[in-house]
């Protein structure tokens, strides 16, 4: 039985019979599955929705699977991906792995092996996400200086020049990181939200503004003004200027 917490697996495969067979097997294994028969429909879905993993055919009617995965990467849509292919060619696998593939499975597909490989990739993906603070920050990131304060992602902590240490939330850290990585750049509210919450986030600009107001207060209470270095660009977003 599929539960609400079951991983969603996309099947991007133009062989309808194979696609439906895999879909039934995944559902019997406790996963949700959704099939697409071309790259365009899969891309459209992933631009607006989340998926835990994608099973991707190399040869699709409208484009090859490797170019689809490469396109997703460029759009910063990262989905663990297992390629399904009938061609056991080293150059094909090399191209696939170079553009972000997690695994390959040969056709004809052994359904039990496929489920085992999906489970293995999902476990690896979950372990990697355990270190994620937000979409753009990780507990493994090193310390850095922002507005003369030391930022420590591993501790979710800010150390100020006056010696005070303050813990702040994950989203605030993501916002700081977004500014730190994009100095002297006007960032729209939408781009900051996508950077911190992810491409599919449904977060209002007003919510982002509230987070930034909270950050300004944290720095102000510790003797650091933000009006010059972190400017509001009215009608657009924000710009961070180091110094």
Write the layout of secondary structure elements.
Elements lengths: L7 E5 L3 H13 L3 E5 L2 H8 L6 E5 L7 H10 L6 E5 L4 H9 L4 E4 L4 H19 L2 E3 L2 E2 L5 E3 L2 E4 L4 E3 L5 E3 L2 H12 L4 E3 H9 L7 H17 L8 E4 L3 E4 L3
Parallel strand pairs: 1-2, 1-3, 3-4, 4-5
Antiparallel strand pairs: 6-7, 8-9, 9-10, 10-11, 12-14, 13-14
Strand residue content: 15-25%
Judging by the overall fold, what is the CATH architecture of the largest domain?
3-Layer(aba) Sandwich
- Stretches with pLDDT under 50, minimum 5 residues: none
* Cα Rg: 22 Å
Number of domains: 2
Spell the H/E element sequence. EHEHEHEHEHEEEEEEHEHHEE
CATH class of the largest domain: Alpha Beta
Mean pLDDT: 89
CATH superfamily (homologous) name of the largest domain:
Response regulator
Question: What's the arrangement of strands in the largest beta sheet?
Answer: 2-1-3-4-5
The end-to-end span amounts to 57 Å
- The computed structural class is alpha/beta
Q: Helix coverage percent of residues? A: 25-40%
What's the shape? elongated
Verbal overview:
The protein is an alpha/beta fold and 243 residues long. It has two domains: 8-130, Rossmann fold, CATH 3.40.50.2300; 137-240, Arc Repressor Mutant, subunit A. Helix content is 40%, strand content 22%. The protein has eight helices and 14 strands. The chain has helices at residues 16-28, 39-46, 65-74, 90-98, 111-129, 170-181, 189-197, 205-221; strands at 8-12, 32-36, 53-57, 81-85, 103-106, 132-134, 137-138, 144-146, 149-152, 157-159, 165-167, 186-188, 230-233, 237-240. The protein has a five-stranded parallel β-sheet, sandwiched between helices. Strands 8-9-10-11 form a four-stranded antiparallel β-sheet, with helices on one face. A hairpin with a 4-residue loop joins strand 9 and strand 10. Helix 6 (170-181) crosses helix 7. The longest helix has 19 residues, at 111-129. The chain is elongated, with a radius of gyration of 22 Å. It starts with 7 loop residues before the first strand and ends with a strand. The mean pLDDT is 89.
């Amino acid at each position: 039985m599929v539960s609400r917490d079951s991983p969603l697996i996309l099947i991007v495969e133009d062989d309808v019979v194979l696609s439906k067979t895999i879909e039934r097997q995944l559902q019997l294994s406790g996963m949700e599955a959704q099939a697409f028969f071309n790259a365009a429909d899969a891309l459209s879905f992933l631009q607006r929705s989340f998926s835990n993993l994608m099973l991707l055919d190399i040869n699709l009617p409208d484009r090859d699977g490797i170019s689809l995965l490469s396109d997703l990467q460029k759009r910063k849509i990262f989905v663990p991906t297992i390629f399904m292919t009938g061609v056991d060619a080293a150059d094909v696998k090399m191209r696939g792995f170079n553009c972000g593939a997690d695994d390959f499975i040969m056709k004809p597909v052994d359904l039990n092996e496929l489920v085992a490989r999906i489970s293995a990739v999902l476990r690896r993906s979950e372990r990697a996400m355990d270190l994620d603070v937000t979409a753009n920050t990780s507990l493994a990131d090193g310390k850095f200086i922002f507005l003369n304060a030391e930022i420590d992602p591993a501790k979710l902590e800010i150390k100020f020049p006056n010696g005070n240490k303050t813990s702040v939330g994950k989203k605030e850290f993501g916002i700081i990181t977004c500014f730190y990585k994009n100095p002297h750049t006007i960032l729209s509210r939408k781009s900051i939200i996508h950077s911190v919450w992810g491409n599919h986030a449904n977060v209002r600009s007003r919510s982002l503004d509230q987070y930034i107001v909270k950050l300004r207060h944290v720095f102000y209470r510790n003797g650091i003004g933000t009006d010059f270095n972190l400017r509001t660009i009215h009608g657009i977003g924000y710009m961070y200027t180091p110094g």
